[in-house]
């Protein structure tokens, strides 16, 4: 069990947010593993009214443990919306580090201390990464690996995001980072949400550090990945790149015009 006491107070209050949709077979074991891994951390399960009863299991876990909290949401609105609601709740409650974590066993709670250590060492965002040295995937279908690697390569080339794994969902943020990246403007619903946040962090000048993690394909339940999720990511990232280039161009034109009128 890790004892996470921090140098600068960043790790004073840690909240791990787990979005769930039909994770009845996974939520209890992942919650227990997280509680064992970092005993001080609080957990917020953000459930979208899962038909399989995940919400009731989460309620029981919360009733047995004052470090476990549940947010019941109306219905399935995508992982991005669940995270945003969770972040807002966590910031209101005064948590100083907020972590995103899947319910299905793909992220290893035992690796959370590594992400927290990166925050403690000065990172504004610590990003669990499968595609840096030391990172790995276990049992992941080749098709998913190609989407993930391709997505990261695309965002590196088109947006200039300097990370190897832009789509990964196991991330730790300082509260100050989340406060500084205009969460109210985030509209990404699906997994594009992860790219959206790292893109905002990079643009905002925050220090993003990649931490190698092992990503294990889920054993129980079904992935919510869909074609629509990939299409959303492609459309949004393409538009962000266009916007970014346009604003760079306008900035350069304005600077030139100002330089002329000054001389
Ligand atoms: N609250 C909520 N959670 C979701 C939604 N879609 C996915 N999740 C959760 O987000 C995490 C990652 O989803 P998963 O289907 O495992 O994605 P994959 O690992 O990319 O195949 C899991 O904990 C899911 O239960 C959603 O619409 N609402
Ligand atoms: Mg998964």
Write a compact overview of the structure shown.
This protein is of the alpha/beta class. It is 44% helix and 16% strand.
Q: Can you lay out the helices and strands and say which pair or pack?
A:
Layout: E1 14-20, H1 27-37, E2 42-47, H2 54-64, E3 68-72, H3 79-92, E4 97-100, H4 112-120, E5 125-129, E6 136-138, H5 142-158, E7 171-174, H6 175-179, H7 192-203, E8 208-212, E9 214-216, H8 227-262
Parallel strand pairs: 1-2, 1-4, 2-3, 5-8, 6-9
Antiparallel strand pairs: 4-7, 5-7
Helix pairs in contact: 5-8, 7-8
Bound molecules: guanosine-5'-diphosphate and magnesium ion.
Residues 102, 104, 106, 218, 223 line the site of magnesium ion (MG).
Q: Secondary-structure element order, as H and E?
A: EHEHEHEHEEHEHHEEH
CATH topology: Spore Coat Polysaccharide Biosynthesis Protein SpsA, Chain A
The side-by-side strand order for the widest beta sheet comes to 3-2-1-4-7-5-8
Q: Helicity, in percent?
A: 40-55%
Strand elements, count: 9
Q: Are any ligands bound, and if so which?
A: guanosine-5'-diphosphate, magnesium ion
Which key terms come to mind for this protein?
binds guanosine-5'-diphosphate, Spore Coat Polysaccharide Biosynthesis Protein SpsA, Chain A, binds magnesium ion, alpha/beta, globular, single chain, 263 residues, seven-stranded mixed β-sheet, 9 strands, 8 helices
Task: Give your account of this protein's structure.
The chain has 263 residues and is α/β, with parallel strands linked by helices. The protein has one domain (14-262): Alpha-Beta Complex (Spore Coat Polysaccharide Biosynthesis Protein SpsA, Chain A). 44% of the residues lie in helices and 16% in strands. The strands form 2 sheets. A 7-stranded mixed β-sheet has the order 3-2-1-4-7-5-8, sandwiched between helices. Strands 6-9 form a two-stranded parallel sheet. Strand 1 (14-20), helix 1 (27-37) and strand 2 form a beta-alpha-beta unit. Helix 5 packs parallel to helix 8. The radius of gyration is 19 Å and the shape is globular. The structure holds guanosine-5'-diphosphate and magnesium ion (MG). Guanosine-5'-diphosphate binds next to strand 1, strand 2 and helix 3.
